[in-house]
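Subject: sequence -> structure tokens, single chain

Hey, anyone have a minute? Need the predicted structure for the following. Not urgent.
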Amino acid sequence: MNKDGCIFCQIASGELPAEKVYETARVVAFKDIRPQAPVHILVIPREHIETVNHIQPEHRELIGEMFLAAQEIAKKFGVADSGYRTVFNCNRDAGQDVYHLHLHVLAGRKMTWPPG
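Reply:
Had a minute. Here:
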């Protein structure tokens, strides 16, 4: 899917509502509407990047900013010390449903390994 009609692009631009918990000029984070843990936040770039496979060298700082956002979110929700998981899913077999890069921040319960 291109950026036209992308639900995450619409959330990032403010066209669609979401319960935003963090926002910068390049990154937006909001609560997942189908949470898999008590804390389940999605961190997205404002720039439309479809999957991990579409990340380019010029995205290095942006990806780093997404992880720094996850760190801040974990602190904000009080789970930085107890633990949290960050996950990128890439393509259908990995569970990617929306083709706009997003980093899951999951916490608030004991995580098992291996996942899924």
